Amino acid sequence: MSVITDDDRLDKINALIVKLASGNLDARETPSDDFDEVDAIIAGINMLGEELESSTVSRNYLKSIYDGIVDMVIIVKENGLIQGVNGAVTKLLDYSENDLVGKNLSDVFKSDSAEPLGFLEHLRDDSSLHNIEGMVMGKSGKETPVSTSCSILIDSKGEPAGLLLVAKDMTVQKQIEAELKKSKEAAELSNRMKSSFLANMSHEIRTPLNGILGFTEYLIGMSISDEQKEYLQLIESSGQTLMKLLSDILDLNKIEEGKLGFDHVPIHFKETMTSSLQPYKYMANEKGVAFGLEFENFDEISHVYCDPTRVNQIMVNLVGNALKFTSKGKVSVKLSISPIGDGKRAMIRGCVSDTGIGIPDDVKNDIFKAFVQSDSSITRRFGGSGLGLSIVKELIHLMGGEISIGSPSHIGTAENPGSEFNFNFSVDIAEAPVNETLEKFEKLEFTTQYKLLVVEDNEMNRILAGRVLSKFGATVEYAVHGKEAVQMLKVNDYDAILMDVQMPVMDGLQATRVIRRLGYDLPIIGLSANVFKEDIDRSRQAGMDDHIGKPFTKLSIFRALKNVLE
Fold first, then answer.
1. Given this model, what pLDDT does residue 513 score?
2. Which segments constitute the Response regulatory domain (predicted)?
3. Which of 148, 137, 151 is CA-nearest to residue 170?
4. CA 301/CA 515 separation, integer angstroms
5. Residue 29 belongs to what domain range?
6. Residue 226 belongs to a domain with what CATH number?
7. Which of 67, 90, 114 is where one domain is finished?
8. What does pLDDT average to over the chain?
9. For the chain, first and last CA: distance in Å?
10. Which of 517, 484, 525 is nearest to 501 (CA)?
11. For residue 211, which of 455, 462, 444 has the smallest C-alpha distance?
12. What sign does the CA torsion over 45, 46, 51, 52 have?
């Protein structure tokens, strides 16, 4: 039986230490049963081996997680040198880890904000930074867009020891953003082209329409037979219908672009609506249809701030539709007002009902969409573009209100069930003027014989304006473009100028600016087929005193001239 000496045991201890030091972490020695001081050393070395083995397993596990992260992970020392990277970095940049370790971060991270010292400086007040965009450059020189987040690494003493950077490859996202931007720009270009086309078409249509409606109005005022007057009124009505369709198309385009503007002016609501709907009362009487118009509480709240043009547009569309689709029975309009909130605002509620052909249930959800009619046969029987209700809904929504279709079974019949539209919108309450007087003119005639200059490139509109102004008692001269008007003004005195906006050689806005620079302060009134708020604003910014939309009426020109001359 051999005896194990202390020297043998010490040799085993040395051998165990060598095995562990060489990486054989599974090596172990068994202590003796006596468990003396030497055995305690062996047990301690065994425990160290177990700890080393456990630590190595943990490091390998963490290393596998570290390399498995799809985003790039870079560890940077406080001096800016790369200490370690994960597999995503070596894959994207085509460097080995050994190639990158020891390099300065700025050698691969091409962004001013990625300077290590700069990162550290910003991070001292915050523990992390997020989504800093930059570029990393690979071995081949290829640049890749990245979004980087970083945080400070703290050593055992609690001091900053470096940075941990996580960089996400943004190549695909940047491509998507570029495509979206391209699509957005294409859509915006298409919208601009559409708007430009509609504006030009509006001008081209309104210009001859101005002559048609203007001369029709001029002829109606002459001594003619009742039959001739009836024909002229039909022409005028057809022209106004065409004007309404044109305005609807332009308004719909403005709504789609989010550029439809609203005025905020005080009006006597009841009187304004009564005046606007008066023609429909006559139209109803001619069809043999009763027409009812009721107001509730407008004696208590008479004046409100709103856009009268838009409110009229809503009412005219709803009432016009009701009358168009009603051949017998009644069209009813009810409007009420009541204060809301602190009493400075009010809610206007309206109901337009009729005993007409009604709206089928299967199309009620679509009736407010553009170009939708309640039935395909409606267009053939009654005409119309299907734009009116779409614009009404959009206008009411833009005014903060709602519109819905009711069930007017109480007013219709089985053959003609009728329709009912209920709507509301809020307005600001206005103070009633102390001495309100409606503008009235006994005769459209000036008290002074004014000398006026009409600047208009369209011959028919020049003739029309001349005839109308001559009827007012004015003397009229003409220019066919802005440049000619400027030259005529230098050698003649005029009391006012009626200036077309869109003309060849020199347009009305350019001519007005030149006239103002030359020191002339006589009134200039713009005439334009472009009638949106921004068009009016451009005219005033150029130096015009007023802006009249085409087609113009005798009253609109008389009122504008009277305001600036008298």
1. 94
2. 451-565
3. 148
4. 46
5. 6-67
6. 1.10.287.130
7. 67
8. 79
9. 140
10. 525
11. 462
12. positive
Which conformational region is residue 265 in: left (phi greater than 0), alpha (psi within -120 to 50 degrees), or beta? Answer: beta
- Taking Cα atoms as reference points, which of 489, 557, 473, 548 lies closest to residue 522? 489
Q: Are strands 546-549 and 524-528 parallel, antiparallel or unpaired?
A: parallel
Query: Within this chain, do residues 379 and 323 fall inside the same structural domain, yes or no?
Result: yes
Q: pLDDT band at residue 384, thresholds of 50, 70 and 90? A: very low
Provide the token pair at 62.
Answer: 């963490």
Nearby residues of 463 by Cβ (< 8 Å), 6 or more positions away: none
Q: Which residues make beta-bridge pairs with 109?
A: 136
- Give the domain CATH number at 354: 3.30.565.10
State the Cα–Cα distance between residues 187 and 196, nearest whole angstrom.
14
Max distance between CA atoms of the chain, in angstroms, equals 151
Does residue 62 carry a pLDDT above 60? no
Q: Is the dihedral of CA 88, 89, 90, 94 positive or negative?
A: positive
For residues 420 and 456, state if they share a domain: no
With vertex at residue 425, the alpha carbon angle to CA 424 and CA 427, rounded to the nearest 5 degrees, is 140
What is the rounded distance in angstroms from the CA atom of residue 444 to the CA atom of residue 474? 11
Residue 136 lies in a domain: yes
Tokens of 271: 């009187």
Q: What's the rounded Cα separation, in Å, for the pair 426 and 146? A: 50
For residues 492 and 519, state if they share a domain. Answer: yes
Please give the pLDDT value at position 515: 94
Quickly list DSSP for 132-196: EEEEEE-TTS-EEEEEEEEEEEE-TTSSEEEEEEEEEE-HHHHHHHHHHHHHHHHHHHHHHHHHH
pLDDT tens digit string along 71-109?
Answer: 888 888 877 788 888 888 888 888 888 888 888 887 887
* pLDDT tens profile 119-169: 555 555 555 677 778 888 888 888 888 888 777 777 667 777 777 888 888
Q: What is the CATH number of the domain that holds 538?
A: 3.40.50.2300
- Of 429, 460, 493, the last residue of a domain is 429
Do 98 and 17 reside in the same domain of the chain?
A: no
And the tokens for 429?
Answer: 């309450």
d(CA 75, CA 81): 9
Number of domains in the chain: 5
Both 283 and 409 in one domain: the answer is yes
pLDDT, position 452: 94
* SS3 label, residue 274: helix
Same domain, 80 and 53: no
CA dihedral defined by 498, 501, 504, 510, rounded to 10 degrees? 90
Residues 310 and 399 in one domain: yes
* 156-192 exposure pattern, b = at least 16 Cβ within 10 A, e = fewer: eeeeebbbebbbebbeeeeeeeeeeeeeeeeeeeeee
Rounded to 5 degrees, what are φ and ψ at 280? Answer: -75, -25
- Chain-centroid distance of CA 362 in Å reads 32
Residues 158 and 204 in one domain: no
Indicate whether this model's pTM tops 0.85.
no
**Using an 8 Å Cβ cutoff, are 242 and 276 in contact?**
no
The residue count for the chain: 566
